[in-house]
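Before a computer can learn anything about folding, someone has to put a protein's shape into writing. The three-dimensional part falls to structure tokens, numbers that each stand for a local backbone shape. The protein below has been through that process, and both of its lines are reproduced in full.
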Amino acid sequence: MIDFGIGYEDELLTSISKKRKELIEVAETCGIKNQETVKQSKELDILINLYQKYIFNRKLINEQ
């Protein structure tokens, strides 16, 4: 279960930044079509999607 408590947004943003750096390093080393690069890209997509859902849900809650 995901903890949406205090610090969740900061934690997500930190994870996104870290994953983005990892993706760039792997892509520069192995190439953009490498299996590890694709894996890192998918993991980054998941984190970004989580962040977008979090922001959307927070907005819904604040509108109520």
Remarks:
- The longest helix spans residues 35-63.
- The CA atoms of residues 20 and 44 lie 7 Å apart.
